[in-house]
Design goal:
Elements (H helix, E strand, L loop, with lengths): L2 H12 L18 E2 L2 E3 L6 E4 L4 H5 L6 E5 L7 H8 L7 E8 L2 E8 L1 E2 L20
Antiparallel strand pairs: 1-7, 2-3, 4-5, 5-6
Length: about 130
């Protein structure tokens, strides 16, 4: 064999195998979705935003008032929770907020609700009972 042939076959024989990287697993359709916000139950005003969740990454802030989720216009936070739980993790939703009189629209990708979602702030109950 010539030197070039030996070089090519040697490189092919000892080259690292490039296996495809498997895609991230899809969220379970049975999991509950999460956005990563807390609000007073009587209003739609956001009181806290988790920075590592979709709402925090999108730019939603405390004191934003939720005006619309998709085509639904909630009047209290219980309606916000009910509307969000009609979607599955991985779904894209459009959330419109009123920030100091200015309307802003955010597109959020829902994530599965973490197991410690309700325990992040001691003394605060879960927004949705985990046994629902």
């Amino acid at each position: 064999m010539s030197g070039l042939t030996t070089y090519l076959f040697g490189w092919i024989a000892f080259s690292p195998v490039l296996a495809p990287i498997p895609p991230a697993p899809l969220p379970s359709p049975l999991e509950k979705p999460a956005v990563g916000i807390r609000a007073d139950t009587g209003t739609c005003v956001v009181t806290e935003v988790y920075p590592d969740m979709p709402a925090g990454k999108a730019g939603i802030r405390a004191n934003d008032r939720i005006v619309r989720i998709g085509s639904f216009h909630p009047t209290d936070f219980n309606q916000v929770v009910s509307q969000i739980t009609t979607y599955r993790p991985g779904a894209m939703i459009e959330l419109e907020v009123d920030r100091n009189g200015e309307r802003k629209v955010f597109k959020l990708k829902l994530v599965p609700r973490p197991a410690d979602y309700g325990s992040r702030i001691p003394g605060y109950p879960l927004p949705i009972n985990p046994d629902d």
